[in-house]
Amino acid sequence: MKSPRTCPPQDWVPLLVPDMPSPQALLPWLERMHAARHYSNFGPLVKELESAFAEGFQLPIGQVTTVTNATLGLELVLQALDLPPGSRVLVPAFTFVATATAVLRAGHVPVLADVDAHSWMLTPDIARAACAVARVDAVLPVATFGMPHHMPAWQQFEHDTGLPVVIDAAAAYGSQWLAGAEGTLVFSLHTTKSLPAGEGGLIVSTRPGLAARVRELSNFGINLDPAADVPLGALAGVGTNAKMSEYHAAIGLISLQNWEHNSQCRRALRADLMQDIAQASPGPLVWQQQGHGGELMAPTLLCARLPSEAARAALEKACHRGRIMTRRWYQPLLTNMGVLRHCCTPLDTPNAQALAATLLGLPFFLGITHEQRQRVCTTLAHALAKFA
Question: Are strands 184-188 and 201-205 parallel, antiparallel or unpaired?
């Protein structure tokens, strides 16, 4: 007797798929690098990439610098601000762990604040309220999921309070601009971000001397300025090795050439997926709302807020059965991480707690197929039917 046929299992629908340049596209840049025999230490491709960034932000070249990744970029910016040791830095409780660990590794104390219920971000109004109940020495807002901040409002906050503000804009390249205001931005060029270089970070700052100081600290703190009081080659400060390599700059330059096209595709895909999911869902889902900082220009994630914690759990189980990857962004909250409890100061965070209980990341990547999209929508409709 023949055994009954069984259907082969479906492939998993990925949560994310990096959108990196092909080896063929990269080859001419690698040949340039190899011909110059310059592979790191502020090489010609790094300089070219930084010049392109400066032009894009309409700033002098001295107000931008690259680093090996955004996490080290945050640490070095905090160090460059020369805050007293143990300063208290306000950060949102709802964010990736690197925001808090950068504060700790810079020798300071994260003060964990709430976020806006609609934009899911730490806003100037929330920061003002936090300053009224806790000592704050600096503020580190996050461009959550790439949603840009309104920089004139943060400039006004700095003016009113005297507190330095640094925007963790890791996921917001192409969305977060200075918009004519003064400010400091730290971007990630990680492989999953809108401008991927494999690894890398970008600091943009109108604060006098800050980008130059970060650049120096990224090269161990060695002075390379002949006009400085410290001799050339001597330590001007205690830094680290956080220089971007020529390899990563090459990838960044290719990605920059393709950024406008890819960002348009990402915006269109996000709008289509949200529409498909809204039509399939038997109940309302809540999406992140645009704040006063402008439109999300190059989305890299798709996160939906479910009606309840039970609804999220049901959808997670259904997606697992259907071989669809999901993720709880950001779980657990910083306030609920045991490693951080003894070294952070938590404030009341009702909005962040509610987000943490109901938010779920769904598959989002360029090249997602019609079958994969249909599978996500069908699974969502079945899983949430009883919660309608």
Answer: antiparallel
Domain that holds residue 329: 258-387
Cα 369 versus chain centre, distance: 26
Bridge partner residues of 286 (DSSP): 305
Region of 29 please: left (phi>0), alpha (psi -120 to 50) or beta. alpha
Q: How far is CA 254 from CA 58, 146, 201, 247, in A?
A: 20, 21, 16, 11
Q: Are 221 and 332 in the same domain?
A: no
> For the domain that residue 322 is a member of, what is the CATH number?
3.90.1150.10
Give 175-230 pLDDT, tens digit per residue: 999 999 999 999 999 999 999 999 999 999 999 999 999 999 999 999 989 999 99
Same domain, 151 and 209: yes
Cα(357)–Cα(69) distance, integer angstroms: 30
Encoded amino acid at 33, one letter: M
Calpha distance 206→272 (Å, rounded): 37
We report the CATH number of the domain holding residue 65 as 3.40.640.10
Q: Taking residues 142-171, report their average pLDDT.
A: 98
Give the pTM. Answer: 0.96
Span 317-331, mean pLDDT? 96
By residue count, the chain amounts to 388
Specify the number of domains making up the chain: 2
- Within the chain, residue ranges assigned H as helices are 23-36, 44-57, 70-80, 97-105, 124-133, 151-161, 210-218, 246-280, 309-321, 338-341, 350-358, 370-384
Backbone angle region of 209, left / alpha / beta, with phi > 0 → left and psi within -120 to 50 → alpha: left
What is the distance in angstroms between the CA of the first residue and the CA of the last residue of the chain?
47
Q: How far apart are CA 162 and CA 85, in angstroms?
A: 18
pLDDT digits (tens, 9 = 90+) for 229-261: 999 999 999 999 999 999 999 999 999 999 999
263 part of a folded domain? yes
CB neighbourhood size of 230 (10 A)? 14
Mean pLDDT of all residues in the chain?
95
Q: Report CA 377 to chain centroid distance, whole Å.
A: 27
Looking at the fold, whether 247 and 148 belong to one and the same domain comes out as yes
The domain boundary residue, chosen from 252, 271, 301: 252
The reply to whether 231 and 265 lie within a common domain is no
